[in-house]
């Protein structure tokens, strides 16, 4: 099962550049997660969950680490 949390950067239009929307994708079956920043603004899937503060994503990442989840960027394949 996959979980997608996202935080929409509401101030990006004031900066006149692309958005810095934070995303956290969690693979609950494999105990992995992926963090990425996206300029994409429209999230429409029913299983995507918007969080109100970027710190909520950071706090959840700490929770995942404490419970044995691994960042996919840290997995060594070789």
Verbal overview:
The protein has about 80 residues and is an alpha/beta fold. The chain has one domain (about 1-75). Helix content is about 20%, strand content about 30%. The protein has two helices and five strands. It has helices spanning about 10-15, 55-65, and strands spanning about 1-5, 20-25, 30-40, 50, 70. A five-stranded mixed sheet has the order 4-1-2-3-5, with helices on one face. The relative contact order is 0.27. The mean pLDDT is about 85.
How would you summarize this macromolecular structure in one to three sentences?
By secondary structure, the chain is an alpha/beta fold. It has helices at residues 12-15, 54-66; strands at residues 2-7, 21-27, 32-38, 48-50, 70-71.
Note poorly predicted spans.
Answer: none
Distance between the termini: 26 Å
Major beta sheet summary:
5 strands, mixed
Strand order of the largest sheet: 4-1-2-3-5
Number of domains: 1
Structural class comes to: alpha/beta
Keywords:
alpha/beta; elongated; 32% strand; 2 helices; five-stranded mixed β-sheet; 78 residues; single chain
Write the layout of secondary structure elements.
Blueprint: E1 2-7, H1 12-15, E2 21-27, E3 32-38, E4 48-50, H2 54-66, E5 70-71
Parallel strand pairs: 1-4, 3-5
Antiparallel strand pairs: 1-2, 2-3
